[in-house]
Design goal:
The protein is 15% helix and 56% strand. By secondary structure, it is mostly beta strands. It has one domain: Lipid/polyisoprenoid-binding, YceI-like (Lipocalin), CATH 2.40.128.110. The termini are far apart.
Length: 191
Amino acid sequence: MNKMLSFILGATLLAATALAVAEPVSYTIDPTHTDFFAESRHFGTSTTRSRFAGKSGTIMIDTPAKTGKASITIDIASVTTGVTKLDDHLKCISFFDASGYPEATFVSTAFTFEGDKVTQISGDLTMKGKTNPVVLKASNYNCYISPSFKKQVCGGDFEATIQRSLRDVKYAIPLVSDDTKLAIQIEAIKD
């Protein structure tokens, strides 16, 4: 009977240890190492790039379970192109309508892994009151121990192409491309 009790206790401790190892890890976005860019073809010639400087959010990753969650907020009024007149135009009602819709949000619906690496994040992007699905594909993903923060940091480079017309940003289509490339570099610090 003692052997059976020892076996049950050992199995219980092993199961509890396995559960502890598989717990999700929470991260907060590091705004100094995170950037959001939108790129559109301008009159079929050059590419216009916009950067959104204001961003915040949280990410949860459970690598053993191959799951994750992300919730990211982007400050629309923080858009910058390096040209003040264009920045003002992008903030107006014809484009992003920063006064009516001051934030865009991304909320994940699924994480895809290859081994321990995140390869894509599917989710819903909401802009100007319109919510549509988007798939962010990773071209790079890594975790490391930051010498500055003394904590684990995870992140990478992600890309997607969206149609801005689906988000009610229709100004100058087709002269300015409807297809808009999102390029996101993100790093998040373990809580």
